[in-house]
């Protein structure tokens, strides 16, 4: 069996944006007002008003060091806002909430680790077992179901250190979905994946959006693989931000204003190419010369 092909097709065609805006009656699952995050004198972003609705996919873009991961940490209750207010599912954010699934940035695992794919997924359940009175057979069934849902059954018992980046990413998604979360936070889940594996990850996220109305905050350097799914983009750069539908944010005018320098946004064959965006804002300690990129 080709392990990279083991995801069943999405039940519906892809590319329908705007689901989150169809159910505003449920109210936002994330609500931030005038949010500012600074480390010492360095302001990453200031005055951020953000509502994320159930079933909405918010893509978070921006150069290295613009505060994308820090935003996820704030939503997870691991980092406090410097100013402003935030509720997540109606409460102040807190660590370990079972209604939030988190796919952290890929970190390398030692090749000799004995932790198997099913153990990793089970950890996603164990962290919350106080809320889930599951018997051992029920836990096993749940883990099997989660692995099957991401097409990872055939390597359930393989140590994760031996899995490829794409295989490991599927297992991480299964782990993040273990508690049936209402919010899914993804930190660059496409990083270092080839196109085929990128598509697999996007398909799994899309399925979750559609089947469960889970709100997704998707940090990425590459907007193109998720462009058909994105409701809005939050673009962070140089201590500022721009938020709105892709057609409003991904324009030369909007990004030039945000970066404070001329940036070209070109659309070719349904793809977006950003040319001339600096790697980091001028106040960033590692600010670099302008570079060409597909989408920052
Ligand atoms: N706890 C902290 N204390 C001080 N500075 C921090 C802390 N956490 C992150 N930073 C700095 O804040 C900046 C933003 O970091 P963050 O990881 O949020 O950026 P990012 O946009 O996710 O970057 P990348 O695209 O490289 O992953 C970086 O310059 C980082 O070094």
UniProtKB/TrEMBL annotation:
Chain segments annotated as transmembrane: none
Q: Which InterPro entries match?
A: AAA+_ATPase, ABC_transporter-like_ATP-bd, ABC_transporter-like_CS, Metal_Ion_Import_ABC, P-loop_NTPase
Determine if ATP-binding is one of this entry's keywords: yes
| Single GO MF annotation | ATP binding
Which keywords label this protein? ATP-binding, Nucleotide-binding, Transport
Tell whether Oxidoreductase is among the UniProt keywords.
no
Q: Where is the ABC transporter domain?
A: 30-263
Q: Where do the record's region annotations for Disordered lie?
A: 1-29
Q: Please name one Pfam family that this protein belongs to.
A: ABC_tran
What family is it from?
Belongs to the ABC transporter superfamily.
Name the UniProt record assigns to this protein: ABC transporter ATP-binding protein
Protein species of origin: Streptomyces chattanoogensis
Taxonomic lineage is: Bacteria, Bacillati, Actinomycetota, Actinomycetes, Kitasatosporales
